[in-house]
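TICKET: design request
STATUS: open
ATTACHED STRUCTURE:
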């Protein structure tokens, strides 16, 4: 029978390995990994707020909706997700146009 401490340790190892936080079964596993903070546990850099801030910049929300980051973060969640999805779709469409235009210009230049 496991003690409560051993059971907690076994569950933590299983959880961290299963959730991809840290693989305790790898050959060169760090013995202090049980008490270390792993990148996936860093809620400041890896949390939902940072993810949304990164998407705000990546999808150029300001360029399309003219919402400052502060205004964007204050919008209701469903609206903010709509803005991000729209911007992602818009940017993919624009990237496709740029790619086609570049291809057409290259083809025309090669014909000369």
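STATUS: resolved
RESOLUTION: sequence designed for all positions
ATTACHED SEQUENCE:
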């Amino acid at each position: 029978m496991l003690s409560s401490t051993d059971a907690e340790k076994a569950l933590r190892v299983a959880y961290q390995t299963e959730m991809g936080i840290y693989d305790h079964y790898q050959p060169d596993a760090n013995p202090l990994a049980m008490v270390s903070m792993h990148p996936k546990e860093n809620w400041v850099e890896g949390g939902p707020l940072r993810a949304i801030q990164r998407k705000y910049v990546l999808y150029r929300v300001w360029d399309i909706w003219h919402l400052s980051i502060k205004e964007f973060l204050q919008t209701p969640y469903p609206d903010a997700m709509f803005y991000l999805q729209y911007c992602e779709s818009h940017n993919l469409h624009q990237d496709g146009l740029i790619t086609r235009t570049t291809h057409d210009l290259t083809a025309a230049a090669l014909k000369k």
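CLOSING REMARK: The mean pLDDT is 83. Residues 55 and 84 are 7 Å apart (CA to CA).
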